[in-house]
Structure formats: C-alpha cells, structure tokens
Amino acid sequence: MFPKAELEATARALVAPGKGILAADESTGTIKKRFDTIHLESTPETRRAYRELLFTTDGVEEFISGVILYDETIRQQAQDGTPLPQVLSRRGIIPGIKVDKGAKDLAGFPGEKVTEGLDGLRERLAEYRELGARFAKWRAVIDIGDGIPTRTCIMANAHALARYAALCQEAGLVPIVEPEVLMDGSHDIERCAEVTEATLRAVFGELYEARVYLEGTLLKPNMVIAGKKCPRQASTQEVAEATVRILRRAVPAAVPGIVFLSGGQSPVQATENLNAMNAMGSHPWELSFSYGRALQEPVLQAWRGDPANVAAAQQAFYHRARCNSAARYGKYTPAMEEAAAPVA
Ligand code: 13P
C-alpha cells in the first residue's frame, strides 16, 4: 500500500550521522515577524533572497540533510532561474514542505488549539511531490496553563496528525509528526514532562490506529524544559535526562529518528541540550535537530537584508549547522563557538 522501502530510506537519510534538518518553512506571517527584528520589509523578493542565501551556503550539505519549505518557497527560483527545491536536491539536500494550515481555536475549549489542513490534503501532497518534496511537516500545538491541556485537545491534535501522516505515506512523502508542547508559561520541568509524555503516548496510539508505517516516519517533539517564566530553569543535564526518559517510554524504537524543534531556546542552548542527550550514550533512535529559530537567528542578525552581508550571514549559518552536527555525536564544545567567531 505505502512505498515502504522508499519512505524508510528517506527517513533514514534525513537523520544520517552528523546531519539534521533546517526548518525554513515560516509562513508569510511568521517570516514577517522575523524580518521585523532586522527592520526589513517582507516581500516575495526579500523572502526569496533570504531563502536563496540559506540554501546556497557552501559546504552546509555536510551538516544539513533536508530543508522544510513553505508553499511560496517551493515555487520560487534562485537568481539563475533554478527552482529552489532543485537548488537543494542538486546538492544532496532533501526538500520538504510544511502542509498544515495553522493552529486554530478549538471550539468549546478556551485557550486551546487544533491544527487544520486535512481538507484537500491528498491533492496538495501529490502536487508537492511533483515539485520535488520528499517529506512533509504538520505542527500541532499544546499549551500548558490552568486546567489545560485537556484530553480533548490532545486527542483532536493526535488524530489530525495521524490522518496527515497516513496521507503523506500514501503519497510517498515521509511525515514529520510534530506535536509541540509550548515553552510559554511558568510551569516547571516536571509539568512539561507529564504533558509531553501524555501527548506522545496519544500521538503514537493514533498513528497505530491509522496504520502509519513508523519506520517511514520522523517525530519532531519539544525538549522537556521548564516554561520561559518559571523561576527555576533546569540545567542542560536535567533537560537531557528528562527528555530522554519520557521519549524512551513513549516513542517506539521502530521510529528511525527524533528531530527536535528549538521552540524559543537560544541557538547555543538548543545545541547544548542536543549534545547532552547524545553524550548520554546510544539510544533506540537517532537524536537530531529540525531547528528554525536556533539555526536562523544569527543568520538574520548577520544579514539584515544587505547584499553586502551575504557572505557573513552564510558563515553564521555554516557555523551553527556545524555546531549542531557535532552535537549529533555528543562532541560539541563551547570552544567551537570562539574558534569560529565571525570576523566583524
Ligand atoms: P523552531 O526551531 O524555531 O521552534 O522551529 C521549528 C519548527 O519548524 C516549528 O514548527
């Protein structure tokens, strides 16, 4: 029914040793927020120039296995006319695509959301495959607060993720299943662990019911971490141990890889946490990254929309990708940051 061998080969290539994913699938609204931080107007052309800068960074294919694109980007071309997905695939980087239509208010459950986008998804996936995509992403968000999340919210999101994943596999695309427990709020690390474990158990229950082929799937979870406003922030070691503990309970070993989101952690923190987990020893799955902000923040700061800064921005991207690649082996050290400080 599903092209199992191809799905598994793609999933494994995305978590190949030393490699991880760049999430560059910001919607038009989100990329505008990112460009606002550098006082750059968001237009189709500035967005195109920025994505081309990322995708043409020399040598980054050593550390980056795949890039998640947005609908606009998968249809854009580099300056020389090459479609952006082909810019990636020619360098051995696998193009992917965000296919959800965003988290909308869950009726009857104030403060909670459910991700939409299942209607017409089969047809959209077929088109994205034609355009070169070999994997996809769907993000569900679970917020922690007073009396939330509810079981209803967790189940609604888990069910949608499972229906999305099955449609992807039918179309020959590896589904990245992303249930993100947000780090906004003042909850402690224990509460994050409890909610993340409950969410992941629900998600894998639904994936099973939907007959999703786990060997051809990747999981993109949050790390287990205290809320941003929690007075007690956990150490790197605590985050690593708590995250691995609940992943071992909830994620079947058939899943080839777990590719974390950065979710608002600083770039260095996201690298350190991934490094600590991989330094703990071998795990049933590859532990890798699918970072958006943690890979891109320093790039945007170096670029600021000025063509004269493209080389410095690419250097910043190369550097963060290299640090996260080292973290895949538990071999990242703070000295790597100094060694490669950008020439001002
Ligand atoms: P962050 O790493 O910035 O959380 O983005 C990853 C992502 O793709 C969220 O859906």
TrEMBL record:
GO terms for biological process: glycolytic process. The keyword Ribosomal protein does not apply. It catalyses: beta-D-fructose 1,6-bisphosphate = D-glyceraldehyde 3-phosphate + dihydroxyacetone phosphate. Keywords: Glycolysis, Lyase. Its EC number is 4.1.2.13. InterPro entries: Aldolase_I_AS (IPR029768), Aldolase_TIM (IPR013785), FBA_I (IPR000741). It holds the Pfam family Glycolytic. Coiled coil: none annotated. Pathway: Carbohydrate degradation; glycolysis; D-glyceraldehyde 3-phosphate and glycerone phosphate from D-glucose: step 4/4. Gene3D superfamilies: Aldolase class I. This is Fructose-bisphosphate aldolase.
